[in-house]
Each structure stands twice: as structure tokens, then as C-alpha cells.
Amino acid sequence: MELRDTRTWTSKLGSKAWLMFNALQFVFTVVWTVLCISLALAVRAMTGRRDLSLRMAARLWAPGLLVGAGAQLRVEGAEAIDWSRPHMLVANHQSIIDVCALFRAVPVPLLFLLKQEMTRVPFVAWYARAMDMPFIDRDSPRAAPAALRKAADRVKQGAQLCLFPESTRSRDGTVAPFKAAAFHAAIEAGIDVLPVALHGTGAVLPAESGFAVRPGPILVRFGRPIATTGPGAITQRQALAERAHAAVVAQLRRCGSVSSQD
Q1: Which residues neighbour 90 within 8 Å (Cβ) at sequence distance 6 or greater?
Q2: Which residues pair with residue 114 across a beta bridge?
Q3: Element containing residue 203 per DSSP (H, E)
Q4: Long-range contacts of 21-25 (CB under 8 A, 24+ apart)
Q5: Residue 139: which domain range?
Q6: For the chain, what is the domain count?
Q7: What is the pTM of this model?
Q8: Model confidence band, residue 1 (pLDDT cutoffs 50, 70, 90)
Q9: What pLDDT is attached to residue 13?
Q10: Average pLDDT of 174-183?
Q11: Does residue 49 belong to any structural domain of this protein?
Q12: What's the confidence (pLDDT) of residue 2?
């Protein structure tokens, strides 16, 4: 009886320690984000250079949050990509920490196509607007095409644009079918689609956990670009979405994570 009581007490103590640890991580995340965004906005205002403020997300904000979460990031395949050319990156989505991993993994300034709800998040929305990132209202048949045209304009100007075509975070690691509409931006801009597989982010910060961080490895693996112009190009958005989905799932299988939803 005494041994069982000791184990119960130890288990409760461990749970309380994790709760305290996660609370401190949450506070750090908020404070670090506010500080980094404030500094990035100041740099943007003083220099007029958007690229510098974007790179601050990759070199300051994202590394700080990854280290704070105890995540060990590994990147594969980036060296095979011609980053002097614009791409539309499409990735599976498991966690809010996906954005940190992608900012850190891509060696050039990166924009995101954000859902309209993000406009209500202080600092994050201010930063996104200052960086001229497009927002999309998925529930508005009228507004969504305009957002996609804006996204196409960004990549025509040479940007690397990232989006999560599942439209929501996966709770169980399953990769839901990619929404085809978003791929119209790549076709209209005539740029390659770059499939990206994210593995481990859902374990470090699960979508349904609130803010229960667990240190662990994260892998970002870049696939081969899919052409929308030239020989063998895919110019139908549904076919392009299916090809990109298959490429991401294939990369995840190589990670030992078989996760596809028909």
C-alpha cells in the first residue's frame, strides 16, 4: 500500500511538473513572439526592406521557439532545390509549430497563405500584413478567388509561398486530401509546386493538446518540384493537388509515418 501511494504521489508530481513546464513554455512563446515581431516591424519601418524582416522569422523567432520546445530539427532535400526560382510549397499540417519548422528549413524569405481568422490575432496579423502575406476566407466564394490571385501575384514577383492545402491541422497524422482550389495560384503564376513533408511536429505539439509541448525530433523533407509549365507539366488543379498529395505521403512513408486519407 505504501509503495502504491508513493508511485501515485510521484506520478502526480510529474504531472504537475509538466503542467508548470508547459505554462512557462507558453509564456515564453507569447513573450518571444511579441518581442521578435516588434523588432521585425521596427526593422521594416526603418529600412523599408521586407526581406530582412522575413529572414528575422527564420533566424530569430523560429529557432527560439524550436529550442524552447525542445525540438531537434532536421532538414533533408533542401540542397537539391533551386531557391533562386519561385515555388509554391505545399505541406501536410499537424501542428502550429509547422510554421516554425518551415521558416527555419527554407533558406530564403518565405511567405504563407493564411486563413482569414488569423487577421484577429494581434502581432501575428500585423506582421503578416507588413510582410504582404495573402489571407484567404475559405467560407467566402467571392473573396477566396481574389486571395488566390493575390497569392499568384506574390509568386510571379519571385516569392516562395507556402500553404497547407488540407485547410486544417490533422489530429491523428492522417494527410487529408488536398483542396484543389489553392493550386490554381501555382498554375496561374506558372511556377513549380514543391511538396514538403513534415514529420514529428504533431508529437512535439499535438493539435488537440492546447499547449502541451513534448520535446522530440522534427523532420522537414523536401520532395521534387512539380512543373506547371513545359514538357510533362500538370495544368489541371485537381490533378496537381492529387500529385502533390501523393508526393507528400510518399515522403512521410519514408519517415515511417504512413498517413493518407482517401
Answers
A1: 162, 163, 164, 165, 178, 182, 183, 193, 194, 195, 196, 244, 248
A2: 135
A3: helix 201-204
A4: 21/213, 22/211, 22/212, 22/213, 25/68, 25/69, 25/211, 25/213
A5: 70-254
A6: 1
A7: 0.88
A8: very low
A9: 43
A10: 90
A11: no
A12: 45
C-alpha cell read off for 89: 510549397
pLDDT tens figures, 92-133: 999 999 999 999 999 999 999 888 888 889 999 999 999 989
C-alpha grid cell for residue 121?
490575432
Per residue in 152-170, pLDDT (tens digit) is 887 888 889 999 999 788 7
Residue 20 lies in a domain: no
Q: Does residue 228 lie in a domain region?
A: yes
**Enclosing H/E stretch for 150:** helix 143-156
Amino acid, res. 205: L
Q: What is the mean pLDDT of residues 221-225?
A: 96
CA distance 150 to 135: 9
| Residue 72 pLDDT class (50, 70, 90 cuts) | very high
Task: Determine how β-strand 87-91 pairs with β-strand 192-199.
Answer: parallel
The phi, psi pair for 258, rounded to 5°, reads: -90, 110
Residue 127 maps to a domain: yes
Domain CATH for 200: 3.40.1130.10
Three cell numbers written together for 239: 490533378
SS3 63: helix
